[in-house]
Amino acid sequence: MNIQNRFKRYILGLFCCFTLFQVQAQEGVEFGGYIGASHYFGDLNTDFSLNNPGLTIGMLGRYNFNERTAIKLTGMVGQVSAYDFDSNNTFEERRNLDFQSRILDISAQFEFNFLPYFHGSKTQFFTPYLFAGLSVTNFNPQTEVCNGSPGSPASTCNGNTSLVSLRPLGTEGQFKGEEYYTTTGGLAFGGGFKVSINYEWSINVELSGRRLFTDYLDDVSGVYADIDDIQNLRGPVAAALADRSNPIIGETGRQRGSSKTKDALGFLTIGIVYYFGDLKCPTPK
Q1: Which CATH class, in words, describes the domain spanning 27-140+182-222+257-275?
Q2: Which of 68, 91, 8 is nearest to 258 (CA)?
Q3: Would the pLDDT of 115 be above 60?
Q4: C-alpha torsion sign, points 153, 157, 159, 160
Q5: Domain residue limits, the chain
Q6: How far apart are CA 253 and CA 236, in angstroms?
Q7: Which residues contact 102 (CB under 8 A, 6 or more apart)?
């Protein structure tokens, strides 16, 4: 190959790279972070109330196959809580249970863009999208109690309170060593809207959910156990927190929660994402 033809191939290769970089190079990697609100839905929030949001922060990594499809990995840390005294249901108000928990969630999702999406494009720089996948969530339900009087409402303690983890107490009569797991799988799903600010940076707004494979995110699932058995097996604190109703409604075998429907989480987040790209230029010979 003479020098003139080699030079032409180099120019053609550079032109191809430049064109792909500006318009077509959508195969590639993105990383970013986000912040938002987390919500819990379950036995202590049966009316899907949104009045107890928790703070959530997280990170994401996305690999774009093309302008339509991608796979995404996310990791987030958040807080959720719920209180029976917020309920409009008479039984739930009298039940008088509550919980709060830190959550750690990791998920893998397949993502589909409704519109062709090109980073840095002046016309195809935004799209709504849907995603679905699997998640793993770790949790630890706790409740705030009065020091020295765990059965009393925390609001009556004048600040003299502490947090107690509920799982080790076996509040539904679980035997020692047979408590529920605090790490569970789940289904991840949701939708969002992404906007490319320029070739590198974009903004992603997402509404997502997790349908967990456990009903014990809130430590409530089955029926009231015998309080004397809990007292003998776990001690007075466990007995006091197993039934906090006023007036007392916790008869042995009476419904405490419903195991027919598993617990769920919801997230509303906004994130900023950086696109690294994965340009594969032809190699001149």
Answers
A1: mainly beta
A2: 91
A3: yes
A4: negative
A5: 27-140+182-222+257-275
A6: 20
A7: 77, 78, 79, 139, 140
